[in-house]
Automatic annotation (TrEMBL):
Pfam families reported for this sequence: Peptidase_S51
Keyword Membrane carried by entry: no
This protein's name: Alpha-aspartyl dipeptidase
Taxon lineage: Bacteria, Pseudomonadati, Pseudomonadota, Gammaproteobacteria, Vibrionales
Family designation: Belongs to the peptidase S51 family.
Keyword Protease: yes
SUPFAM superfamilies in UniProt: Class I glutamine amidotransferase-like (SSF52317)
Molecular function (Gene Ontology), one example: serine-type peptidase activity
Keywords, ordered alphabetically: Hydrolase, Protease, Serine protease
GO biological process, one term: proteolysis
Amino acid sequence: MEIMLFSNGKVAGNTELLEYGYEWIESAMERTKAKKLLFIPYAMIRSSYDERASQLREAFARFGCDVTSIDTVSDPVRAIEEADGFLVSGGNTWVLNKMLHDLGLVRPLRKAILMHNKLYIGWSAGTNIAAPTIRTTNDMPIVTAAILPSLNLVPFQINPHYIEATIEGHMGETRDERIEEFLVVNPHEVVAGIPEGTMLQVSGRTLRYFSANGKPMKLFRAAQEPCYYRQDESIQFLMEHGC
């Protein structure tokens, strides 16, 4: 497997998508030799699929890659089978997950990634769907008949855009409190909170955490104090969760 799960697409000072992770992406490209990338834009609600595809085409040209958007092909399943890897955009996780299920693309994607070792690069919503379910997304369920099970590429839950903050005057729950609620109801789960500018990577069976800004990952377990993991600290045990 070669899976790259970014918290977000851009950080302050970046002009291109995933710019803060170019060095990490370049290493993955060298390992996988991926050249034909399929872009999956279904999470995008307020932006143009074509514009995002054009941005990615320009960004990934530096790695010698060609990017095709899945909405432009006549046979999405065949496009998945013929691609070397996948780019899955941020946006609304509920819409993205529902579209993949409605179009019958979950099984072909899992087969391509888990059995044929094709590269997967997701950010924000594209990271959420790599978990077993999308129950720890920050997004509103703006579609009806919302579907919870997702690609299940990693055996733990993820909360991208994780922020450890209390806003003055805001009386609603903090992110930590929302995750705590999730764990009260689902005590067997663990949740990895990854802040902006960070990434989880699975290469083979090895899981690593990368941070462009030094921010740690925050790991939540039921009935335990959350703990922090910094880049180069081992988090391999998460790959055994649920086994």
